[in-house]
UniProtKB/TrEMBL annotation:
This is Dynamin N-terminal domain-containing protein. Residues 569-586 have a biased composition (Basic and acidic residues). It holds the Pfam family Dynamin_N. The keyword Nucleotide-binding does not apply. The chain crosses the membrane at residues 484-510. It comes from Gulosibacter chungangensis. One of its GO terms (cellular component) is cytoplasm. Keywords: Membrane, Transmembrane, Transmembrane helix. It comes from the Bacteria. Residues 54-216 form the Dynamin N-terminal domain. Residues 569-591 are annotated as: Disordered. GO terms for biological process: tRNA methylation; tRNA wobble uridine modification.
């Protein structure tokens, strides 16, 4: 009788990228760089579990919501209508333990920012004609709904609304909020070529997103000529912008795809789904998302290689010195002398730290002012185009879109402030032959984030007060109309009929005009808030540069000068070392050099594999 040994579950073997990363970590630890490597490892850990995003845009009545339902495999999930249906952008998020299917979330400007509701109640908050949305004291900014796993995988799908069906503000907000890679899915249909507004929208937005896919829908309705429309669209895109000449263009039927998801008969479901071509669209969307998912690993490997370059050069230089060759000695001497000179003049006016900060402050403040003016002019022009005033639906739609635009503009401007300030720090450090620390740049980013998170309220919908002059005008016009009627109808009531008709018309018109005036006031308030937020960010960020960063620079400069002296002393010691001391030191140095070179080579090979460039030459 034999007894079987208990089976033990074997851990999955780490992949080649993990092994290469571990080699970099071992080399870093051997060269006293464990803390820096830990920062790179944390970056990788922070990206785990993030979900990519597909942002869906399209003009009205192009089949956008139907296509979203088909991609999700969930009939009726996104509201469908022949006219503008949704007043908020809705994110369809893969379900999780914290956000289970059947739940939805509304985001507000005031606390609590996120408010959970049953998914069955979501329609009344996102439909533009819903009384709940129109009558709310504070309408939500956007919404999210947890959905079960879809054929697209664990990807967030964002359905963007907008006046006319296309809104750069909604699209750019969704892209900016995406935690990971994002793809812009433009939806048009097979009725004809892509429209000029849609084309220009696509050209502009494509500069701010990694990947674009074009879906040509309703091939079930235009079976005879959708192929010609698809080819014509390809030529139009290539002629308008060569960057768009090679984007994936997929002909698809959202209606067939949605019907397939609801079809109980497996054979018919498979046939419908195959005819819908939704699977080809999903494949086109997955390709750029899969490529982008490799970016954190690629960045970590590249940063690991860059981190080991300096100790490798130092060890190689010391090995050369032990062999009697010291080519780097003069260069190190020049570095030491330059940094010691900077130390002597750092507190002197010759080192124009404050002058450079002031120049950047003027530059950024001017940019903020220009951005606020352009923002205010754009939205005033949008509102003033409603010559006869604004209805409730128009008011809610324009206010929500403006709130999205504020977030986008603040985000862009803050990135510009951070990048310009980081560039200033880089220039100031470069004068000393150094690079600013990552922690210093992180502090700049933190101050900018603090400014954007400062006290602010949502866009308030002010009370629309009716202008009494318009009411009086209506009464007078009604009286005149009544007199005119009296010429044909002999009745004492004709003046009152005229007054009633024109009075009612005047009330409606007065309310619409008052609503428009209220929105214009909101535009003014939003413009002021935008300018104040950005100016607050400039003060906070440049405060870091002019005070904290200057102290850190002083410390780094002293340490750098000390390091240069230490390395020079080590080289001098290596030149004077005895034969036995040289052999001992070489016995310590050579294994370290070999370890670093092997780790860097493995990481480089892995980068080539991940980028499908195995035939590319080594850098």
């Amino acid at each position: 009788m034999t007894t079987e040994s208990p089976k033990t579950e074997s851990k999955p073997k780490p992949n080649s990228a993990t092994l290469a990363f571990r080699q970099l970590g071992a080399a870093a630890k051997s060269n006293d760089l464990a803390d820096r490597f830990a920062g790179i490892a944390k970056m990788i850990k922070d990206t785990q579990g993030r979900q990519p995003t597909v942002v869906v845009v399209g003009e009205m009545n192009r089949g956008k919501s139907t296509l979203i339902n088909a991609i999700l495999g969930a009939p009726g999930m996104a509201p469908v209508g022949a006219t503008e249906t949704t007043g908020l952008s809705v994110s369809y998020v893969p379900e999780s333990e914290k956000f289970p299917a059947g739940q939805a979330e509304l985001e507000y400007a005031s606390e609590p920012r996120l408010r959970r509701i049953p998914a069955t109640e979501l329609d009344q908050w996102v439909r533009i004609d819903s009384r709940a949305l129109l009558d709310a004291d504070e309408p939500p900014l956007q919404a999210a709904r947890a959905v079960k796993k879809s054929p697209l995988g664990r990807v967030t799908l964002v359905d963007t609304p907008g006046s006319g069906g296309l809104s750069e503000a909604y699209a750019m907000r969704a892209i900016a909020r995406a935690q990971d890679a994002s793809v812009l899915l433009m939806v048009t249909d097979a009725a004809g070529r892509i429209t000029k507004p849609a084309l220009e929208f696509l050209v502009h937005c494509s500069t701010m997103v990694e990947s674009v896919v074009l879906a040509v829908t309703k091939i079930d309705l235009y079976r005879g000529h959708w192929q010609a429309v698809l080819e014509e669209n390809r030529q139009i895109l290539a002629a308008r912008d060569p960057r768009l000449g090679n984007i994936p263009i997929v002909a698809v039927s959202g209606a067939w795809g949605e019907r397939a998801a609801a079809e109980p008969n497996e054979e018919r479901r498979r046939k419908l789904y195959g005819s819908s071509n939704v699977h080809e669209l999903i494949r086109a969307l997955r390709a750029p998302l899969d490529r982008a998912s490799k970016l954190p690993t690629l960045n970590a490997l590249r940063q690991g290689i860059a981190m080991l370059e300096k100790p490798l050069v130092q060890l190689q230089t010391e090995r050369e010195a032990l062999g009697g060759i010291v080519e780097k000695h003069d260069a190190l001497l020049a570095v030491r002398d330059h940094r010691e000179k900077l130390l002597r003049t750092f507190e002197d006016s010759k080192y124009d730290w404050n002058a450079q900060v002031d120049r950047v402050r003027v530059e950024l403040t001017s940019a903020n002012s220009r951005l606020a003016r352009e923002f205010g002019a754009h939205w005033k022009d949008r509102v003033q185009k409603f010559g006869t005033g604004m209805g409730e639906k128009q008011s809610v739609a324009i206010m929500n879109e403006m709130a999205a635009d504020i977030e986008v503009q603040i985000g862009r401007a803050l990135r510009g402030i951070v990048n310009r300030s980081a560039g200033l720090l880089t220039d100031l450090y470069a004068a000393a032959g150094m690079d600013p620390s990552r922690s210093l740049i992180a502090e700049v980013e933190r101050r900018a984030a603090e400014a954007s998170a400062g006290p602010k309220a949502g866009l308030e919908r002010g009370t629309a007060s009716i202008d009494p002059r318009m009411m009086i005008s209506g009464v007078l016009m009604g009286s005149g109309l009544g007199s005119l009627l009296g010429m044909f109808i002999a009745s004492a009531a004709t003046p009152f009929i005229g007054i009633a008709v024109m009075g009612s018309f005047s009330v409606i018109l007065a309310r619409r005009q008052a609503k428009r005036q209220s929105v214009l006031q909101t535009v003014n308030d939003a413009t002021i808030e935008l300018r104040e937020t950005l100016d607050r960010a400039v003060r906070g960020v440049l405060g870091v540069v002019s005070t904290d960063a200057r102290k850190v620079f002083d410390r780094d400069l002293r340490q750098s000068a000390t390091d240069a002296k230490t390395e020079l002393a080590r080289l001098e010691s290596a030149k004077r070392a005895s034969e036995s001391e040289r052999e001992r030191r070489l016995g310590q140095i050579n294994p370290k050099i070999a370890q670093i070179e092997q780790a860097m080579a493995s990481a480089h090979d892995e980068i080539l594999r991940l980028t499908d460039r195995s035939s590319a030459p080594s850098p």
